Amino acid sequence: MSGVYLRRNFLLGLSSIGFASLSSKKLFAQNIQLNDVLNAINSANTNKKNPILSASEADGGIREALTNGAITAVLKIGRLDGFWQDNKIKIPLRGTLGKLQKSLKPYGLSSSFDDLQLKINRAAENSAPKAKEIFVSAIKNFTINDAMSILQGGENAGTNLLKEKTKPQLISAFRPQMLEAIDKSGAGVSIGKIDKKYGAQLGSLANISGTKTPNQDLKSQLVDYAVSKSLDGIFYYIGAEEAAIRKDPAKRTSDLLKKVFGGF
Questions:
Q1: Which residue of 77, 180, 214, 264 lies most exposed, with the fewest beta carbons within 10 A?
Q2: Please, are residues 113 and 93 in contact by the beta-carbon 8 Å criterion?
Q3: 170: how many CB neighbours lie within 10 A of its CB?
Q4: 37 & 167 share domain
Q5: pLDDT for 48-71, tens place per residue?
Q6: Which of 245, 17, 2, 240 has its CA nearest to residue 146?
Q7: What gap in Å lies between CA 116 and CA 96, rounded to an integer?
Q8: What's the pTM value of the predicted model, to 2 decimals?
Q9: Do residues 34 and 74 both lie within one domain?
């Protein structure tokens, strides 16, 4: 029996538990199905000399993998130069700001823009740790259906589900944090200086955040943009960790992770 077939049946089995509203007869039948699926998987694993795997262990392994990935990502980028020295997630200036920075750089006149970019990245580094508790709470509240969709999905299925469940909350949490970080870092002052010096050019500024509202000033746009790019950076590394745990035995740092991900 192929691994793909076993996994599909395992997922169907997982989806059958935890729903008290089902009739006793239907629930009993589905639990039989779950046991049959687990027995089939464990029979295959026994032949491969892999440990016996239970539904609760599979669910726990998924949660542990995502929690590890989220914490690793936050620790990696939520420090000095976590964004600034990482070209994979370094936040650029966008729109007219970026164009002015690029056009002035060859003449040694881009210092105001370079300083603004640095301070946006510093603000992202300072804000990143705020995400940790939100991620941990969301993962604890995952359902069996969530576990099913993660196992059924691709190498970043867990990351994508985590993003879906946490992004609105993260934006709400990050925006005041980012605004404060931008002010403390001096980026707010920098954008004021740029606006004063290059006001005419900035008059045609494109929407740098992707979420511009009527009469939104440049600083507010900048905050929204910085929040969006900060979250992109965090989820980039959560996705990288999830994919690595799925593929690389060396990344399975606990017996549970070895048992769950070594059997698929």
A1: 214
A2: yes
A3: 22
A4: no
A5: 445 566 777 778 888 888 998 999
A6: 17
A7: 13
A8: 0.73
A9: no
